[in-house]
Amino acid sequence: MGIVGGFIVAAISALGYAGIAGLMAIESACIPLPSEIIMPFAGYLASLGRLDLFWIATAGAVGSNIGSTIAYAVGYYGGRPAVERWGRYVLLGRRELDLAERFFGHWGGITVLVGRVLPVVRTFIALPAGIARMPMLRFQIYTFVGSWPWCFALAYAGYRLGKAWNHSPMLHTVMHRLDIAAVILILAGLAWWVWRMRRRTAPPQV
Hey, is 165 helix, strand or coil? Predict the structure, then answer.
């Protein structure tokens, strides 16, 4: 499952709902910690009777609000210059910021609601909302309402997978292969991130 997956599993196993909220807060604060791993594993624990799907989704949505508020504040107080300066440390470049800003500029505040189910946009949409100084109450409501169904859907997928786990030998084989693929993807992503950081920090050639 890799280092990232192991960290997620350990946090949820040890802290339960608080772990889910904390991990989703990290993801929503523009740090690339995938909810596609966080919520399905929480759903798997629900299939074992250790957690409840409703409260899993609620904890995930609360965490999304917490992390998104941090990103909103960065955009609100620091503006685009702060995002461009520090964004590279969380794999946020101008292209990702431009994408989120285009969505927000075209659709307005409603993007905070629907953007929660869009790859890339969902992670970074709080930044342009803060830059545009979207009203805080509306931002909080849209973030929660948009995040809850996403969290529930991912958790439910993990719940169904957990229920099927002990009844399908083929599923064991498929998941083992997916573990190998996940490790390869994580290593490739890490190598890409190192290459990208070195490229950005390298002195210009004359």
Answer: helix
Q: Which letter does DSSP use for residue 166 in this model?
A: T
Q: What is the pLDDT of residues 47-91, one digit of tens each?
A: 888 899 999 999 999 999 999 999 889 888 877 776 666 665 555
Q: How many whole angstroms separate alpha carbon 15 and alpha carbon 170?
A: 31
Orientation angle between helical segments 136-165 and 17-28, nearest 10 degrees: 120
AA letter at 195? W
Q: Per-residue pLDDT tens for 149-196?
A: 999 999 998 888 887 765 666 655 555 555 555 556 556 655 665 666
Tell me which H or E stretch contains 126: helix 126-131
Contact 194, 11 (CB under 8 A): no
Task: Say which DSSP state 50 is in.
Answer: S
Neighbours of 134 (CB within 10 A): 21
23: number of Cβ within 10 Å = 27
